[in-house]
Design brief:
Layout (H helix, E strand, L loop, with lengths): L6 E5 L13 H11 L2 E5 L11 H15 L1 H4 L6 E6 L1 H12 L6 E7 L14 H4 L8 H11 L24 E6 L5 H13 L4 E6 L14 H18 L1
Parallel strand pairs: 1-2, 1-3, 3-4, 4-5, 5-6
Helix pairs in contact: 1-8, 2-4
Length: 239
């Protein structure tokens, strides 16, 4: 891939209560390799010690610092993309919404993002249909959500990005979901929300895949392909 200037900010997943820049280092390295771009991995405080809205506010603050200090980092603040997986995709989407007036992201890429915390069977049948598929079973999902959030913050716009009041002005999006993932419907509906606001949104559902499939790129060709697709999508937006 031809070298293009620009950086990707990456927000790691882990259900808002586990994971780190170290657990997701291989993901960031592979994304950097396939995109031929620099990747800046962003950390944030985790629940239960630091429940919502601490994690979202940490990510917002970190990105504000990055765009306010481009010379210290040797980056072009006008050529930034955002990416994240699972809860990291949720945090990345929230941050992009909150900072859209300040940061001109060229692209956003989310791998099986969590975009809502509702169990409405009419909208999220995948949470029932795929409830027993590991690694993110419905039991594990509920366990992590209980650590992260209480009922008071469940509809806070700093938590579920699908509950934002409007989506105008957001960057072009590439959203991956997995067929056998409880978060399948959430990713699909977020892509649809973007499209209805005339935001470019490409949606890819990976057949037969489970939550976390991009962590298996050493064994799965579909995972390696997803990294390539993500890199190509971002690079096109940097041209």
């Amino acid at each position: 891939m031809t070298a293009i200037n620009g950086e990707i900010l990456y927000i790691h997943g882990g259900g808002w209560c586990v994971g780190s820049i170290y657990t997701h280092d291989k993901i960031c390295r592979r994304l950097a390799s396939t995109s031929n771009l620099k990747v800046i991995s962003v950390a944030y405080r985790l629940a239960p010690e630091f429940p919502a809205p601490n994690g979202p506010l940490d990510v917002i603050s970190a990105v504000e610092w990055i765009v306010d200090n481009p010379d210290r980092l040797g980056i072009d603040k006008d050529k930034l993309a955002i990416a994240g997986d699972s809860a990291g995709g949720s945090l990345a989407a929230v941050m992009t919404q909150q900072l859209k007036e300040k940061v001109n992201f060229k692209a956003q890429v989310f791998f099986y993002p969590s975009t809502d915390l509702s169990f409405d069977a009419d909208h999220y049948s995948s949470k029932h249909r795929n409830a027993a598929y590991p690694p993110l079973t419905i039991g594990a999902y509920n366990y992590m959500i209980d650590f992260f959030i209480d009922n008071h913050h469940r509809n806070d716009t700093l938590v579920p990005p699908l509950r934002a009041k409007e989506f105008i002005g957001l960057p072009p999006a590439l959203i991956f979901t997995a067929e056998c993932d409880i978060l399948l419907d959430e990713g699909f509906l977020y892509a649809e929300k973007l499209k209805k606001s005339n935001i470019e949104a490409e949606y890819i559902e990976e057949e037969g895949m489970i939550h976390g499939f991009i962590e298996m790129a050493g064994a799965l060709s579909v995972s390696r392909k997803a990294f390539i697709q993500a890199g190509e999508f971002i690079n096109k937006k940097f041209l």
